[in-house]
Amino acid sequence: MEFLSDYGLFLAKAVTFVLAVFAILALIASFAMRNRKHDKGHLEVTRINEKYEQTRDMLRDAMLDEEALKAQEKAEKKKLKAEKAEKKKAAKLAAKDADKVSKDDSSNQKSESEEKPDHKKRVFVLDFYGDIKASECDLMREEITAVLSQATDKDEVVVKVESGGGMVHSYGLAASQLARITQKNIPLTVCVDKVAASGGYMMACVANKIVAAPFAILGSIGVVASLPNFHKLLKKNDIDYEMFTAGEYKRTVTMFGENTEKGRAKFVEDLEDTHVLFKEFVSENRPQVDIEKVATGEIWFGRRAKDVNLIDEIITSDEYLLSQIETADIFQVEYVYKKSIQEKLGFAAQGAVDRLLMTWWERLHFNRWF
Fold first, then answer.
1. Of the residues 163, 198, 220, 317, which is catalytic?
2. Inter-residue contact 29 to 345 (CB < 8 Å)
3. Residue 36: which residues within 8 A CB-CB, separation 6 or more?
4. Which of 159, 177, 194, 242 is the most exposed place for a label (fewest CB within 10 A)?
5. Could you tell me if residue 102 is inside a domain?
6. 320 Cβ contact partners less than 8 Å away, ≥ 6 residues apart
7. Boundary of a domain, candidates 239, 259, 275
8. How many domains does the chain have?
9. Considering only 6-10, 24-28, 75-79, which range has the smallest mean pLDDT?
10. Residues 233 and 129 both lie in one domain
11. In this predicted structure, what is the pLDDT of residue 48?
12. Residues 32, 217: Cα–Cα separation, whole Å
């Protein structure tokens, strides 16, 4: 028993030390963020078609013998030459048509859009990995702003969302950023490979189309809040806690004071109102959903989510994008900025704490494993 007592004391000290280090690093990151210069970020764009072609060619080169490889390369050069010739011919015809139109009477002129060749579809891909505070919302804002400067209603924006939810106001803003895309009549598709629950689903439901992997977690349309109360412990040790407010409901419940039934009732009332707003938001964006059936806080795996219209199609993000690789130009858009050492350490600590909290939250609520 003495060994267990010593071990428990050692473990408590170790945990306290680790949490203290994380807290210090988080403070450093917070300070660095406040003092960070603007305009450090930049946009990185990768053409996924080229990446896919390079991967395909590498595998092909490893599989084919020298003779077959030469024949393949010769055929590809011939095809490329034919495509260039076709484009050149089309450009000449377009130039002739434009010259002819310029000589015609203005009433018979064709519109500029009719003279241009068909617009090849472009797909812009964004990634969103959500923590409790939806911290990547700031980066996504920059990415969406850039995409909206180029995209048309003939293009498509694909956002890969992975989030178990978090703060209401943070995810409300993230969903509003995605709504900027649909407000411009640009098709928006959200892909969910692992999880889009609670605030994550609030983001996803804004899309024109939601696709998910067979066992992705979706739903959790509900609101939760919890906090410890140390009033009895303080009272036992003759420690007074005083809080001064102006306004009857400026503070309804507290961690250190004695909570009243009236305060608890008001707190629950606020939670219920937030839940009503959440349900209204989902209903407005996905009217095909029976909101009273799905807004119970439950989660659904991909296949079951389709049965209740939380999603539109069962497919992974990789498969969805590869299905368009031959017909569209696909661009990965990412806004990044150079982090200082302090920021990297602080963000690592903050991320570790967030992941720890989310892991235990998922264990409590998503207690299903294979």
1. 198
2. yes
3. 340, 343
4. 242
5. no
6. 158, 189, 191, 211
7. 275
8. 2
9. 6-10
10. no
11. 92
12. 35
- Segment (H or E) for 128: strand 122-129
Asked, for residue 109, whether it belongs to a domain, the answer is no
Supply the pLDDT for residue 333. 96
Summarize the confidence of residues 85-110 as an average pLDDT: 61
Same domain, 228 and 209: no
Q: What is the 3-state secondary structure (H, E, C) of 194-239?
A: CEEECHHHHHHCCCCEEEECCCCEEECCCCCCCCCCCHHHHHHCCC
Catalytic status, residue 40: no
Higher-scoring residue by pLDDT: 229, 24: 229
In whole angstroms, what is the distance from residue 343 CA to residue 349 CA? 10
Range of 6-10, 39-43, 194-198, 262-266 with top mean pLDDT:
194-198
Nearest residue to 209 (alpha-carbon basis) of 182, 240, 229: 182
CA distance linking residue 82 with residue 67, whole number of Å: 23
CB 310 within 8 A of CB 300: yes
The average confidence (pLDDT) of the chain is 82
Q: Report pLDDT for 346.
A: 60
**pLDDT for residue 100:** 60
Cα–Cα distance for residue pair 9/68, rounded to 1 Å: 69
Q: What is the arithmetic mean of pLDDT over 73-87?
A: 72
Beta bridge partners, 47, equal 331
Is residue 344 part of the annotated active site? The answer reads: no
Alpha helices, DSSP H only, in 229-329? 231-236, 261-285, 291-294, 302-307, 317-322
